[in-house]
């Protein structure tokens, strides 16, 4: 081998410099921004679990629009548009919910759940501003600020207490002090208000997400600035949970100064439509929600056919679903495919169809599966593409059960890099409510192409009222799904 020449030495040195140098220093004036490495503040599963438990509490305490509401569907598609720009290794099972609350606010829970108030949707002037709120909240999750905040305070409490503190802060800010929950879980032990440094960081990371998703990052800062300028009324609610870190617009302006310019998506007819829809919905004040939660009642968050929530209330906790809820730990199923599933659920293969049911024992009755997932294969007839195939499958399901209807359009989805389709179906559950009528059921259908024109279907099932609690589990399952050749 040739000895190191005088020429190659500087090159090696230069190479070291190049590798040690942040990307933006090298790329010159128009460097595309890239998302920072957020580190891991606690094991992912733990964060997701904590968030999941908190979601269940939020649903008990606050009026949340059903997943099938057009407003929720819109917010979700907007959220997913933003989520798609986050690299896989830093991504979370984000989910998006709309609170029937008039105050301008939004909050995020560890592991991915994001809640946005109807009041926030009404306060936004265009899609980009609402995207800014979502991007900011998603960045709190991305950076794991609530977990890091607990760490900073030297929290060594048990998970239940951490959860209590978290909820006390989230609901304390969002829905007023919830005395009953506080006594139960020790709310107020930990303050979960974000620090100004966290706020600045959520703006900075949110700006990158905005840019990558095709929105003007300035819209994020401008919306918050607009809220601050409003003062009084409903403006400060958001700002008391998310304290103003200073001149937000200037900070973002500075951050984006060297980013390449691009055509931004600002407003869309979908936003206008969702906002119109949101205006027709009942929104409660923080005080009303507080009183309903105190008296052990939540507003009826099942819509009538026109999408207008009926109410006012029903007793909570009447249906016990504790026997079916996932344990939080996962185990892997291996067959023609592999998938991780809750370790307290069982996988069983149907000898005839070859389909695999993964469900908790208590979630399966003679009438069918009330909770769980079914993975199967189907053979479409003359389908041009996966959309066609998926519509055929839905039609077949509808033939078997005329109560099933499709909620929203087919959405594109990627499962471990494989492009598939995702759609929500609504139908009657095998379980009956207190009135003897079937509970409304939510079925999340995902289809993927298989060899020889066949397709794979995954259906995730739960009564609509419990679906949000199970969604993170189902998203985890989907994420771990692989076909084995
Ligand atoms: Zn914030």
Which secondary structure elements does this structure contain, and how are they paired or packed?
Blueprint: H1 8-20, H2 23-26, H3 44-61, H4 70-83, E1 95-99, E2 106-108, E3 113-117, H5 118-123, H6 127-143, H7 145-152, H8 159-175, H9 179-185, H10 196-212, H11 217-230, H12 236-241, H13 248-255, H14 269-279, H15 286-294, E4 297-299, E5 313-315, E6 330-334, E7 337-342, E8 346-349, E9 356-359, E10 364-365, E11 368-369, E12 372-378, H16 386-400, E13 405-415, E14 418-432, E15 438-449, E16 455-463, H17 467-479, E17 482-483
Parallel strand pairs: 1-3
Antiparallel strand pairs: 2-3, 4-5, 6-7, 7-17, 8-9, 9-12, 10-11, 12-16, 13-14, 14-15, 15-16
Helix pairs in contact: 3-8, 3-17, 4-6, 4-14, 6-10, 6-11, 8-9, 10-11, 10-13, 11-13
The structure holds zinc ion.
The site of zinc ion (ZN) has 6 residues, from α6 and α10.
